[in-house]
Write a sequence for this structure.
């Protein structure tokens, strides 16, 4: 089966978040299931620099304001198509934001260009790249089903899947961009792309995709409610039969504590001794004193620093968290006020709290390998990956009971502990008090070493790879491709 993936980023070429990890892991996970997944990406500098054996497979002289070439190539085992359009993508830094943290003013055209390129590939216009199905990811690729619908009369129409990685990002643009999208006037309607007078990219994808997946079953239920639907709940309930949740996995070769060169010392489920060396390395890296007798767990957060991630709740209760005996290290970037609040907490508690603003892939591995627990207090979380890394590395997840966090972590309640299946700590009240109560529970568990080690071991045995989820995707692809096709 030939599948065309369409996404705005992909690990290891370009990454701003978990979307890139998923897009980078799926091709390998599906390869053993008879699915060849070729991925179309925008030609950002980092992507073009990583492209190997590149050759031109299409040339479009006038493409959303300038010339574009479609290049085919590889990056390691990844099979790629890259839309090389310098007027759209040859920009430094973040793919979505300028140097001042503002959206690029032509983002509407940049990702319409990507989606229309995918549609032309889907129609069979590019030799040797004729997919049976198109799998689009998030709002940046969500116009693919709309282009296939409105401009595909008489052309082949492959099946389409749209995966919602985070419904909060919807690709909404003012109506004045309409003339630049190449779509007919009738498409700007309630049953098309119009959304409260604006142009809604994600809305269009939800409307026209054959199947809509989210990255966890619980999140699939949450987004069909008024509280969790971000204004899209009515439409998602209308498309109810097409919506499903498939939990994310992680690349268990990249994230393997027994072979991870980014750790100070490797370790495994049967021999956790190496975690001590990693903890010492984390303490040294963040300028914290070595663990003293009576200390509670060393807890990390590796996160975007935003209200969605519950970072304000941690900042509000930081002094009380320190009073439990826990220590906290934070790696991430985001809202400036939250960054400042966490830094202020580190200044108040220089031997208990440390903060590094920014993202460092290697350091994130070390934190998972050396910290005792990872705190994920999200108000909503489509899936989350850091808790999966934590399970894999014996870094016990402490998570809000939402979305994929609820689906992947088993709370250390009495019944689960007695059955030996508990893998972390969940809390239902997503508030400062809820976070603090979860930390107190975590500290109490940590101070019972035998209980804590059983919790770590159960987490490290948990299935966090892609095997089961990839099989669900492959089964979905096949169901869609076997349906009756009409142009």
């Amino acid at each position: 089966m030939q599948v065309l993936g369409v996404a705005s980023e992909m690990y290891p070429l370009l990454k701003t978040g978990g979307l890139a990890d998923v897009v980078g892991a799926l091709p390998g996970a599906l390869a053993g299931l008879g699915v060849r997944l070729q991925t179309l990406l925008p030609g950002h500098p980092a992507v073009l620099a990583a492209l190997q054996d590149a050759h031109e497979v299409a040339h479009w002289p006038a493409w959303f304001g300038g010339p574009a070439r479609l290049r085919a190539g590889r990056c390691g085992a990844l099979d790629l198509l890259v839309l090389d359009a310098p007027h759209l993508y040859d920009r430094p830094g973040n793919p979505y934001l300028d140097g001042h943290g503002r959206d690029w003013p032509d983002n509407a055209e940049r990702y319409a260009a990507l989606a229309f390129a995918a549609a032309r590939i889907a129609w069979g216009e590019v030799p040797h790249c004729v997919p049976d199905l198109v799998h689009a990811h998030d709002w940046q690729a969500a116009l693919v089903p709309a282009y296939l619908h409105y401009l595909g009369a008489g052309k082949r129409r492959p099946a389409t899947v749209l995966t919602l990685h985070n419904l909060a990002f919807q690709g909404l643009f003012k109506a004045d961009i309409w003339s630049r999208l190449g779509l007919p006037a009738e498409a700007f309607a309630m049953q098309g792309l119009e959304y409260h007078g604006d142009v809604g990219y994600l809305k269009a994808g939800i409307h026209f995709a054959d199947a809509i997946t989210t990255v966890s079953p619980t999140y699939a239920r949450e987004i069909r409610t008024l509280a969790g639907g971000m204004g899209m709940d009515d439409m998602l309930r209308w498309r109810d039969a097409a919506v499903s949740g498939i939990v994310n996995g992680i690349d268990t070769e990249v994230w393997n504590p027994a072979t991870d060169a980014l750790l100070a010392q490797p370790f495994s489920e049967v021999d956790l001794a190496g975690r001590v060396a990693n903890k010492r390395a984390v303490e040294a890296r963040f300028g914290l004193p070595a663990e003293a007798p009576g200390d509670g767990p060393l807890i990390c957060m590796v996160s975007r620093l935003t209200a969605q991630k519950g970072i304000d709740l941690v900042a509000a209760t930081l002094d009380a968290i320190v009073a439990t005996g826990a220590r906290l290290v934070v790696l991430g970037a985001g809202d400036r006020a939250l960054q400042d609040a966490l830094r202020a907490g580190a200044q108040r508690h220089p031997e208990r709290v440390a903060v590094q603003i920014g993202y460092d892939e290697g350091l994130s591995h070390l934190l998972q390998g050396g910290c005792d627990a990872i705190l994920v207090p999200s108000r909503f979380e489509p899936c989350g990956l850091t808790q999966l890394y934590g399970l894999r590395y014996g870094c016990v997840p402490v998570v809000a009971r939402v979305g994929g966090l609820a689906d992947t972590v088993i709370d250390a309640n009495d019944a689960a502990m007695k059955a030996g299946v508990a893998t972390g700590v969940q809390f239902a009240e997503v508030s400062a008090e809820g976070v603090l109560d979860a930390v107190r529970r975590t500290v109490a568990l940590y101070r019972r070493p035998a209980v804590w080690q059983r919790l770590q071991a159960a987490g490290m045995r948990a299935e966090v790879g892609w095997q089961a989820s990839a099989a669900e995707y492959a089964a979905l692809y096949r169901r869609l491709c076997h349906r009756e096709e009409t142009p």
Q: What stands out?
A: The chain has a mean pLDDT of 95. DSSP finds 20 helices and 18 strands in the chain. The two ends are 20 Å apart (CA to CA). The chain has two domains: 2-249+467-481, 274-461.
